[in-house]
Amino acid sequence: MEGSDGKSMEKMVRKYTDDIINLQKTSEDNTEAIKDIYEKMQLTFQKVGVNKYDAFHEMGGKLSFALCMLDKKDNGYVVNVMHSNDGCFAYIKEIVNGKSYIELGKEEEKAVKQALAGRMGDEELSKEINDLMQKDKM
Q1: Which of 19, 38, 54, 66 has the most crowded Cβ, counting Cβ within 10 A?
Q2: What pLDDT does residue 121 have?
Q3: 10 Å Cβ neighbour count for 104?
Q4: Strand-by-strand arrangement of the 87-95 sheet
Q5: Can you tell me the mean pLDDT for 134-138?
């Protein structure tokens, strides 16, 4: 059988069948890749809480902060960075299932609660980040 343009219908059907088989293989490969990415995503930090504060009464500007980063299972870290006239000091505590085995300060607790609630935290910082993102789009 010949098509109107002189091509064999059999060749066309074979080509389309091969194309479908290739698409199915590509789809299966993509499905496996997506599953792999999804599994890796479970281990990434997905929840963040930030609490900016003044560590010492004589220091202003909220230069100190507590930053909590958690994965989907509420495991991660809280980092407390305290700024003083003498320097900058950083402390890190592990969070397992949303809790720390080491006592947390009130600033750290606030950051952990924000992360557990899925909120960024400090509205000022969130606004600053949004403003920067808007500037990048321009």
Answers
A1: 66
A2: 56
A3: 19
A4: 47-53, 64-70, 76-84, 87-95
A5: 66
CA dist 82 → 26, 53, 60, 88, 130 (Å): 51, 9, 12, 6, 25
Candidates 35, 101, 99, 97; CA nearest to 71 is 97
Distance CA 62, CA 54 (A): 5
Length of the chain: 138
Digit-coded pLDDT (tens) for 36-87: 998 888 888 889 999 999 888 777 788 899 999 999 899 999 999 999 888 8
Residue pLDDT, tens place only, 6-21: 568 888 888 999 999 9
Tell me the one-letter amino acid at 43: L
pTM, entire model: 0.66
Distance in angstroms (rounded) separating the CA atoms of residues 86 and 7: 83
Decide if 93 contacts 109 (C-beta within 8 A): no
> Closest by alpha carbon to 93, among 82, 84, 104, 85?
104
